[in-house]
Amino acid sequence: EVQLVESGGGLVQAGGSLRLSCEFSRWSFGDYAIGWFRQAPGKGREGVSSVSPSDTSTWYAESVKGRFTISSDNAKNTVYLQMNSLKPEDTAVYYCAAAVYSSSWSWVPSREYEYDYWGQGTQVTVSS
What we know:
Structural class: mainly beta
Order of helices and strands: EEEEEEEEEEE
Strand content: over 45%
């Protein structure tokens, strides 16, 4: 069982920055990849970024490449999503999720169905 709690959302003007945090706790042995997803009003949930347990692999959606950076602090069981140059179209509820991961993989999960545990979400609103 993995529990995840997101924080750091809020209201920001276009061009501004926010840093989201995902604090996770794990109650069973194993490695997990952590991913960030978002869901805008009236749209489906889409992948934003993900990171492997040892930070060796990362993935970014094309729409956020060069603007968002994912990082992790394993000592704090926390994954961060630094979001810069925010645009109104980044407005969404942002979720973090955990997926069972194998250290033998050279890739990191990026699709919703690959993730087993989800946080409750945090709202990000970017005004124009």
